[in-house]
Design brief:
- With 245 residues, the chain is an alpha/beta fold.
- It has two domains: 6-72, Ribosomal Protein L25, Chain P; 79-244, Alpha/beta knot.
- The chain has helices at 23-32, 89-102, 122-136, 150-156, 178-182, 199-207, 222-244, and strands at residues 6-8, 18-22, 40-44, 49-58, 62-72, 79-85, 106-111, 143-144, 148-149, 162-166, 172-173, 186-191, 211-214.
- The strands form two sheets. Strands 6, 7, 8, 9, 10, 11, 12 and 13 form an eight-stranded parallel β-sheet that branches.
- The chain starts with 5 loop residues before the first strand and ends with a helix.
């Protein structure tokens, strides 16, 4: 099946159903994919809106587009906040790429006692998330936060309806938490770095309302733990949608 490419635009620059395709999006559209004047293309704004547009004119540094129609990209996904111990750059990029495609709304590297990274290049990671959204066909880019202290993470997620922390010992299974997951609109997910959370961090998480959940009997790398837990949450929500249809 032919892949249907989409290109990001700035919603604020739409004027009377006209908008320009610029920078790397313009290059990808006209130089890589060789799109021509008169062709229709898919657009998205990263805020959850998708568009169909026609290329009206291709100039040296941008293309002028006419928007033919627009729609709100609706998936009925829970609003997932992912907090993950700040691991190595490459591993963190892998996690961001995968969870962006899955539909996470907030990506939050956490500075823990065992963290490796204390800061990271926000622009670089934003581009990685954009690439994933373009590839998977979604329309909303997750909000990517700079590395934050664990107390700031607890504050950010204080109003989430369900909070889960991935732990192996003295934890619930996913199936035991299924009813809690089903009806929750905002869910916070907390994944440790390679060395795991310290005892004090686990204690603080539980005091902040995080419920320990065991993803697997095997010790998983942080990247796999994050995508596994989020995939399970989305699967449980998808079952509910199917049952209600």
């Amino acid at each position: 099946m032919k892949h249907d490419f989409q290109f990001k635009i700035n919603k604020e620059k739409i004027d009377n159903n006209r908008v320009s395709l610029e920078d790397t999006e313009f290059y990808h559209c006209t130089q890589v994919l060789r799109k021509k004047t008169g062709e229709e293309i898919k657009l998205f704004d990263g805020l959850g809106n998708s568009y169909i547009a026609r290329i009206k004119k291709i100039l040296k540094n941008h293309a002028e587009l006419e928007i033919l129609n627009s729609a709100r990209f609706i998936e009925n996904l829970p609003d997932i906040f992912l907090g993950i111990g700040a691991i190595k750059t490459k591993a963190l990029e892998i996690v961001l790429s995968q969870v962006s495609s899955l539909g996470v709304s907030h990506f939050c590297p956490i500075n823990t006692d065992s963290s490796i990274k204390k800061r990271f290049n926000l622009e670089k990671y934003s581009k990685r998330a954009l690439e994933s959204i373009k590839q998977c066909g979604a329309a909303k880019i997750p909000q990517i936060h700079q590395v934050m202290d664990i107390e700031d993470w607890f504050h950010l997620t204080k109003n989430c309806h369900l909070k889960l922390i991935a732990l192996q010992d003295n934890s619930y299974s996913i199936s035991e938490l299924e009813n809690k997951i089903l009806d929750r609109i905002q869910i916070a997910v907390m994944i440790g770095p390679e060395a795991g959370f310290s005892n004090n961090e686990i204690k603080s998480a539980k005091e902040s309302g995080f419920i320990p959940v065991n993803i697997s009997n095997r010790r998983l790398r942080s990247e796999l733990a994050a995508t596994s837990l989020i995939s399970n949450i989305l699967y449980i929500h998808s079952k509910k949608r199917i049952e209600n249809e």
